[in-house]
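Reopening this one. Same input as before:
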Amino acid sequence: MTRVLCVSGPNLQLLGTREPEIYGTMTLAQLHAKVRARGKELGASVTCKQSNHEGELCDWIGGAGGKYDGLLLNGGALSHTSLVLFDAIKAVALPCVEVHLSNPEARDAYRHKSMIAGACVGKVVGFGPDSYVLALEGLIARLRA
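Same output, byte for byte:
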């Protein structure tokens, strides 16, 4: 069975109430359930985690080797600032797909550059909660190719 670690970063625990005009009304728990359900349909096991702490995100990513086959990562605002996340992804050497609910390139200028994109095999943005599902489908297809 394909094993995927889905990691969500800072402030994503506020989904459902945080800026619903940008992020929608689905809670993070609902989003994680949707991703796990789609994973099950695809014959994959998906473990979902969220933290507001960069170091904890790095610990999870760094510890993923040998436990998981690939990663989904929504680093939140850390996607635009964190060389530490970039290095963690590179160091673990697992395929990683960057995912965002909104389209960062269509928002504030400081969100236009991702610091983690260069360590990722792909990026899915702008489709709300479906971004996670699309990212999962793409990652699994890549892993099985």
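So the earlier flakiness isn't reproducible anymore. For the record, The domain at 2-144 is CATH 3.40.50.9100 (Rossmann fold).
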